[in-house]
Structures are given as C-alpha cells and as structure tokens.
Amino acid sequence: MISDASIQEYLKRYFGFDTFKGNQKAIIKNVLEGNDSFVLMPTGGGKSLCYQLPAVMKEGTAIIISPLIALMKNQVDAMRNFSIDDDVAHFLNSSLTKNAVIKVKSDVVGGATKLLYVAPESLTKEENAEFLRSVKVSFYAIDEAHCISEWGHDFRPEYRRIRPMIDSIGRAPIIALTATATPKVQHDIQKNLGILDAPVFKSSFNRPNLYYEVRPKSDVTKEMIKYIKNNQGKSGIIYCLSRKKVEEIADTLKVNGIKALPYHAGMDSVTRTNNQDKFLMEEVDVIVATIAFGMGIDKPDVRYVIHYDIPKSLEGYYQETGRAGRDGGEGRCIAYYSYRDIQKLEKFMHGKPIAEQEIGRQLLFETVSYAESSLCRRKLLLHYFGEEYTPSNCETCDNCLHPKVRFEGSGYVCKLLEVVIAVKEKFKADHIANILAGNATSAIKSYKHHKLDLFGSGDEKDEKFWNMVIRQALISRLVAKDIEYYGLIKLTPKGYEFLDNPHTFMLTEDHDYIESSEEEGAYGAKTAAVDEELVSILKDLRKRISKQKDIPPFVIFQDPSIEEMAINYPITPEEMQAITGVGAGKARRYGPEFLEVIKRHVEENDIIRPLDMVVKSVVNKSGLKVYIIQSIDRKRPFEDIAAAKGLEKEDLFAEIEAIVNSGTRINIDYYINSVIDDERQEDIFSYFMEEAESDSLEEAINELGGEFDEDEIRLMRIKFLSEMGN
After folding, report:
1. pLDDT value of residue 518
2. Which of the four CATH numbers 3.40.190.10, 3.40.50.300, 3.40.50.150, 3.20.20.70 does domain 210-399 have?
3. pTM above 0.85, yes or no
C-alpha cells in the first residue's frame, strides 16, 4: 500500500505542487491500488495529473489513449518539462519516422518511458499490439473518453473498439477521463469499457467565473466587431460550424483592424499550427475556428468565447465555452441563436442512418431548449450534466440579470404528469408536447394517441409552451430522462408526490427570438432608433419618383432599406451602397436624390451619425455572384448553374434575388420563356405592377398561390424587380 507521504513527495518532486486540487488525490490513490476509475472533471480541473503521477510511481509503462496527434505532442512536451529525462514520455503514431519508432520502442522496453501516448488507430495495428504485449503495462488511461459515446459531442467510432484492443494486449486497470459527460454519456462509456462497477469521481461542472448569454442572430458581424474593439488586447475565440464562414469572418475582422486568424481542419497542418502558435504567443488577439480548435490548448487567459453558430450539442457548447477564463479570471460566453440554423443542421442529417439522425435530433432539441429558455443558464447547463444548482439567481447569465415575469403553473404541470403516465412513460418530450397541444402528427396517429382522453387537454397553448413546461419539470426533478433509452420522459417519486399533492409551481415563458439572419442586417435588427421624421420624408421622395417613373414605390427602395437609411444617415455614395438592399446600381440610379435629402436633414437637425461602427466588408472571394451573372448572360439553364456550384434550386433563386435587390439588372427571359407560358407570365407581372403593395414573396404566394406555383411567382418577381427597378 502506497502511503500518503509517498504520493505527496512525488507530487512535489515531479510536478512542484504542494497540494492536490479537488478529487485528484482520491483518484490517484485508486489508480495506484490497481482499480478501474471513471473521472469526470471540467476543463482546467487538472485531469492530466490523475494519470501522470501514478504513471511515474508505478512499475511499467502507462498507455495513454488520446484522440489527436497535436494533443499528444503538447502533453508529451508538458510531461518532459516536469522531468529531467526526455525519455519519460513518448508518443507512438503515424507522424513518426522509422528511426523515431525504433527509439520509442527501445526506451519503452528499457523501462525509461513511463507514459506512452497512442491513438486508438495505432492500437489496431497488429505490429503495435504485438509490441505492447511484450511490455509491462501499468494501466490504460483513456483521455477524452466522451469520444466513445455516440451521444457525446465528439464521437469517434474507433474509440468504441478500445476494450477489445486492451483485452488482446493484456488487461490492466483502466482510468477513463473526460471533461464533459451527461449521465447518458457516462453510462455509455462505462458500459462500453466494461467498467460499470468502477468508482466515479465527479467534480462540479460549475465554472462560477463564466458569464453566459444568448443573443438573437441579427447584425452579428457588426456586434462582434464592436465587442472585440471594446475589449482590445484581450484574447478571444469565435466558433463557427463551417470552414467557409471561418475564413469569411477572419477576413472581415482583419479588414476592420482586428488581429485575427482562421483555424480549421481544411487548412494545411503547417498554417494551422502557425496560426495556433501566434494565438498562444499573443501575436493575434482572436482565433476564428471550427470545433477542431481548442482541445488540449492550455491558454489560461482567453477572455471571451463567441459562438457565431449555435453548436450541435450542449456538450460541445460546454466544452468550447470552457476554454474561457481557465485562470479563474473573466470569461464571457456569448452565443448567437436563430432557429434557422437549427433547421440547417437538421437538413445536414438527412441521408444518415436513422439511429444517427435520432441521436442528432435529440442533441439539437437540448440545444434549442438551452437557447430559448428563460431559466438560469447555469442551472440548465449543470442539470444537463446531472448536477443540481440550487441558488435561485446565479447573477452571471443574461436570464438571471434580466429575468422574465414568472406565473403560477401547477395546473400545467399536473396536466403534463398525467399525460406522461397515460403514455406509460415511453415517449419523448416533443411527442408529449404534441399530445397536450392537440397536434395530430403522424407519430401521434400511429400510436393512436389522438384518441386519448387527454389529447388536446392543453390546446389553449402550443407545443413550444408545453416543451417549456417539460423542461422546467425536468429541472425541478418532477420528471427525468431514461438513461438506457435516452429521451423517454418518466415520472420521479417527487413527480408522483406532486400529482398527489399539487403545490405552487412558478413557470417563466421562453424567449421568442425574432427570426432573422446575419444577411438581413437591419431587416431583422430593430434595436437602433429609427428617425421617424426622416422615414416620412424619404417615403414622400420615393412616392414622387415612383409617379415620375410609373413604377411601384417598393421597386425603388424597400421599406427596410428606407428604415436603415433613417438609422445610419448615409451621406456618400459608398455609405449608401452599404445599406441593405442597395447595391451599386440602385445607389447610382436613385442614390443622389436620397443622399441630398438625408444630408440636408442631418445638417438642419445637428444629427451625430452612428459612423463609429461602419463595418468594412471583404470582397466575396468565391465569385459565386459573378459566376451566376456570367452564366445568365450566356443563357445557361438554371439547373446547370445550380449543379455546377452544388446549389439547391432554392439557394440559386436566393442568390439571383440578392443580385437583383442590390441593383444589378439581369435578363432571365430565356429561362422564364422555357418554363412559363406567355399568358401566365402576363398575369403574374401585372399583379406586381398593379396590385402588389410591396414586393413580399409571401403576400404574392397568398394572393396567387392557388393558380401559380412558388417557382413561377419567384421567377416573375425577379424579372419585374430587375426590369422596373434596376
């Protein structure tokens, strides 16, 4: 039995520390005693020491299974810094030369190497497995163990084969470590590794120094630039879901005077490593990245983490926000949310195996719940990881700092609990919400739940409301999610007790974020004050020009463009072109008269214009718009244009509409004539010319939809706006 004094001596001698953090000592003793262990410890909690210290104390070599080559290199370097001997730690992976592999194996066999880092793929190679069979393995440490679970945020199929690999090499104690695992993921990991009986060492997931906020996704680039410039000199990370968006935002930040670099898996490894090093060495302030960035990056002073796109899972979100404030100092976590992004992520799932789609949908449901809820964000996050947070106000999230009005909801909760019992606790939240709201979906009908007495018992509210009730009942532990069949809602003893003796239960309505997107700019963002007097003046001018030219007013400038002019007061042609919906063509054709009126209004009223935040934009490097215009000039069929650029038909229409709205005149008669006959063209065109009050596609579809399909209306609307407005 190894004494506490001996452990303490090794801690001081090897690592220079006098004391352990949290559960470290108990975990280390458990490993030294030859037992399996499961360690749940948030980022910055000191996970690595839990296997590094036992490795140097035990006889033999510890095999550390790690997912990333870059991560292995960082950890080997860190371990060598603690020791006087570089041979104490090695990695064995595909990046090594033959000579390097010989050196590693020689050091391991000679007993000099106490930690050998390998990727799970390396273990599958028979030559490596054969070599390890000849080695005394002290224990196996599985780092980033959440990669084992299909329900985790970073699933790696090869991680699920680790246990058979260990059995083929030779059994030794196993320690699995992760910084994020829900109860479901934890169970999945333990079951897969065959360590269900192992003691679980769980540290709190609460990071008290982090501030959490979710904002509607509107005018995001402008907001981010403003935020970064107000926090100059501080390090930050911006996460996006696509590589293209990473490049785009990094370029935009750079042209606006911010020291930023991109980071994603599509870049060559040299550039990627250089960009990471520049961030670590503080040569740049901001890294714009996909989730590929940050695992194992030990930069303690990241002061903000911004999610341009909401992540695919709450685990991913927690992991990424966990990179802020690791030194215990300031850490602001801001996420931009639009339900449209969730719909895009759902689309990406089509074509995947059904089981994978189901998991993806459940994880997205949790993300939506977090984003839209008005409950304490800290309470929601910790509940997700199976931890209870009791304070009523954390004072470090947007929902606690700006609480919504609460209302009595015990009646709603009782209805919910009754429905859960009626469906025998075998269905998920959205199914139960649809029963309560009276939505006879195909799933409801297939289980004949539309015939239940309780079907529609809460139809005065919609399914979104009922999902909110379910979420708040989960937080209060009146219901719980089944671990084995994740997502099935079951009553807890506390829930049955509530049904027998209902008591006051306060609910808060969810946020109802305005549907908007980054591209909409001021269309979706009505936060700045609109100068109503100027709006009226500009609309009068628009009416006068429309009469002169005999075209509807909205063809000149749409209402959102007029309103944005009355917020930003453009007085130069360049500033006019920056207004949403005004391109070079419209700025040239109609701009001068509008600019003159705005300039006079600004001078007469001594208006200070909000030009402190004019965002410079980057030329679109993809050249997609140029390609589309050139293809239309050559009279190429729309189907061919879309196929050449991998676009859906709907996306191509949206691109062409954007081209026309920005003032570029294009002639698509050749295509229209091939798909719509003359009479139908005339009817739709005359609707826009004589009846339409705006250029709204929705209004046009409502008016014409019975007779004409949406594609016909969209094509004629493009023709009309191009001919009459540009």
Report:
1. 43
2. 3.40.50.300
3. no
